[in-house]
Target: Aminopeptidase
Amino acid sequence: MTSSHDAPVDADLATAPPHRRGLRLQAALLVALLLAAALAGVLFRGVPSPQGADAPSDVFSATRASQAAAPVVAAPRPVGSPAVDAAREELAVQLEALGFEITTQEGIGVRTVGAEATSGYVTNLVASRPGSDPTGTLVLATHIDSVPGAPGAADAGVGLAVILETVRALGPEAMRNDLVVLLVDGEERGLLGAEAFLEDGADQLTAPVVVLNHEARGISGRPMVTRAGGPMHEVIGAAPSPEFESFTDALFEIIPNDTDFTVYRDGGWWGMDMAIIDDAWAYHSAQDDAEHLDPGTLQHYGDLTLALTHDLGQRDLDALGRHAAEQPVQTTAPWGVVQVPPSVMTGLALLAPVLVLGAIVLRRRRGELSLLGTALGAATGLLVLIAGVLAAFVLWSLTAAATPEMLSQTTREPVRADPFLLAELLIAAAVVAAGWVLARLLISRAALLLGASLTVAVLLAVLGAYAPALGGSFILPAALAALGTLLAAVLPERAGLAVRAVALLPTGWMLGTQLHTLAEFGIASAAGGLAGTALIGLGVAAPLLLGPAPAGERPARRPHRLLIPLLPAVLTLGLVVAGTSWTLAAPEPTQERVTAHIDGESGETVWEVSGSTDWGRALDGTAAQSDLTMPTLETETLEDSRVRITITGARDASALTLSPQTDRLFDVAVDGVPVDADDGLDALQIHGLRAGQQVEVTARAAPGEHLTVLETAFDPSLAAGWTEPGAEVSLMQPRTEVTLTAAL
Model:
């Protein structure tokens, strides 16, 4: 007996029987339907047109929001600088004019991670409006400071603009719940303002506290709710075109990004963390300015915050607390956010491969495929998934390594990412085409499609059992597709076609929304992820493209079809080359990192530059002798192996890093504020120093210990050998680093 995995060749389409041509037409129509659903998902993630200054007073206007924030985002405002002081004063004036009671909170924020601690001098701005019958407190939060050298129109000037226009649109009347605008300092240097407020100030708020935190990693795109805490699943539906994916919250547990929301949620507050992430090449750069911030993005951000503020401001927050223990897995559908208990999501994930197996058994009984052929199809699906992700990752890695000058210094994103994102999808298509042609030399179409689908279903089942929140956006479409696959195997052909068409729609929607979201994350952040998502979606949808197959369907042994993958491969290379040229020709300046390393004793200076431009390469490695005011360092031995370290700052907005050379520092305090580190510290950072400010650090140190103190400031023109770059160069947090040492 000859099994289907080693049978002779299929007929060409032109000579195929009418039934076979009809099945191929069905497949083409189903592919078109899948693409249409994906396009709908992409369009869903658009942003509205910005409202002008003449918009109704109770409506959010991006134009008015930009005007309100303009005086604040005109220049960089790092913690400890006169610019951040001026920004705080301007914000206080505007909020007081809107009827808020203004207070400021000065303190030292401290945050410890492992054996390293960050601290800093911060001044938070708190604006309050009591509620008419409060059941809790709603906090609208963002940070005032930006990184040195960046105006921060997006990070987090967009939050300032959104909050100012939101509270203006609310009008002067009190809402039911207390309303607090919390604008913290020192976020960029370690969430320091949020830490200081939670340590001393948060206890004055009426509980429960719900925070809407505003952040940015890019300058455009659709604002996202990236994380949530407490019963926010009961509230998210109040947002316009609501969108939330539980996997973004789960991702924060495994990636290094962080925001003030971490501090608020750890402090017991409920709430949402919101952000914009597209065009991340401008993140922490001089191009994060008002000119580059997309007004449509600002409009949607404001619409989102205003709608949620209306809801939470009037809602009974005590009653909302009854849902605080619920933690549903959430994903976005066209009609809103779908919420599924984690146990149900896990059950659906485990059910999907069972349903696919059921379809395989039914088709095996009808002689449409063999078990060996299906096993080969499953192996092909796994290999294609792995190869597609690796090919996409390697493609971008080689492209980035070949032309580092086109990348941003912070996120490593190109100014123009679209060609590289399309190239990733094309290289995945080339891998799929190669896998298809090679597998079809040995096995039938049914064995390949169902085997590949089984592989994807099993992988999602493992993910669903381990972390249902991470797989939430994939599991529901996969379960529905698996059900459609089984039903299509038992129903008459026309009914089966209708079921297949309906079952394809969730997968198409998922592909559109998730690929668009990943594209906003950027090619550097999502390299391989875009291809992986597309391949998983295709694996889920694959058996739905399969109609009734004749018994004993044959493989297609046509070696000349191995030329088919060459087309997407050639297009991939063309896109990479063209995209590189297009990006290098962009009008945006090339980003450079520059540091002057200065010996605090001798003044010897060595310049270090990333070297992406002729200017940078010329300055990199040059030496000079700097004559600038140095910070002063004094040490005093106390009882019980304790020491007092007194440092006087030399420049505004400067930072200190204290590092013992042999052992750790224990029982550390900064100006009397203890640093929580039971296992001691390898490094202590102190941010927000002013010129002439004295800092006192006490600690317990090993006998004979030596201390290295690094002062970081952000005006490279103070160091000898500096040359100003031209307009074609954008400096990324340029700095001077002065090194001092002392015996303890």
Remarks:
- The chain is about 40% helix and 20% strand.
- The chain has three domains: 4-44+359-584, 62-339, 591-743.
